């Protein structure tokens, strides 16, 4: 008699051409995508268990199959989006090419423009009361370390190097948030030029 559970001996049970694990992953992905759509429309405040399930066309049973709460869903989604921002930045930051600053700035700005839903979650929502505060605190040090260890490696004094990295990371986050919410009006090229100028300014400030 089949129980509907996967067995190591019998192999994964196939239904509709997919395994149970594959169907669970598909439902989880659908819930995350639904949450992103809601964030794009109304911010993280619009993300509730019921709203996400309605958008994904799934019941709450399947929501709790993947997430214990709405806050866990937002935590997972935020970390996933943060990694998408960090990956291309890391590749350019590690380069020693003379054009690195502009290339890195362009990659960052284009990443912000690529998907408004993800950029809103990553750069705007942490400034509102969405429950993302602790997640942001846990994630942002990775971006600070990237700046500290690669872009400002020439600064010998570790305290000054850390000060420069933290200031730039937090300043850029605030700048991008203002750009995305419309309170800062600037073109893509103006934002890129600002990022390049900021890097140059910090290098001039701390020569050694």
Written overview of the protein:
With 208 residues, the chain is an all-alpha fold. It has helices at 20-42, 49-56, 60-66, 70-93, 100-114, 116-124, 133-151, 158-181, 188-205, and strands spanning 14-15, 18-19. It has a two-stranded antiparallel sheet with strand order 1-2. The longest helix is centred in the middle third of the chain and has 24 residues, at 70-93. The relative contact order is 0.09.
- Tell me the β content: under 5%
Order of helices and strands: EEHHHHHHHHH
**Structural class, judged by helices and strands?**
mainly alpha
Mean pLDDT: 87
Biggest beta sheet summary: 2 strands, antiparallel
- In which order are the strands of the major sheet placed? 1-2
How many helices in DSSP terms?
9
Low-pLDDT segments, ≥5 res: 1-10
The amount of helix comes to over 70%
Number of strands: 2
**Radius of gyration, Cα only, in angstroms?**
21 Å
Q: What gross morphology would you assign?
A: elongated
Distance between the termini: 73 Å
């Amino acid at each position: 008699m089949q129980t509907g559970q996967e067995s190591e001996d019998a192999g994964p049970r196939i239904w509709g051409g997919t395994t149970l694990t594959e169907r669970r992953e598909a439902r989880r992905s659908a819930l995350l995508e639904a949450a992103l759509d809601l964030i794009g429309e109304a911010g993280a405040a619009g993300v509730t268990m019921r709203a996400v399930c309605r958008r994904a066309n799934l019941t709450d049973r399947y929501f709790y199959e993947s997430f214990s709460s709405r806050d866990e869903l937002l935590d997972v989604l935020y970390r996933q989006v943060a990694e998408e921002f960090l990956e291309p930045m890391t590749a350019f930051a590690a380069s020693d090419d003379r054009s690195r600053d502009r290339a890195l700035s362009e990659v960052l700005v284009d990443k912000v423009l690529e998907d408004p839903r993800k950029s809103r979650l990553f750069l705007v929502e942490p400034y509102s009361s969405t429950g993302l505060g602790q997640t942001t605190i846990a994630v942002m040090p990775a971006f600070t370390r990237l700046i500290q260890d690669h872009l400002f490696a020439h600064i010998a004094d570790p305290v000054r190097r850390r000060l420069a990295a933290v200031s730039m990371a937090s300043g850029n986050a605030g700048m991008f948030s203002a750009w995305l919410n419309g309170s800062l009006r600037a073109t893509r090229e103006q934002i890129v030029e600002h990022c390049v100028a900021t890097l140059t300014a910090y290098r001039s400030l701390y020569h050694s």
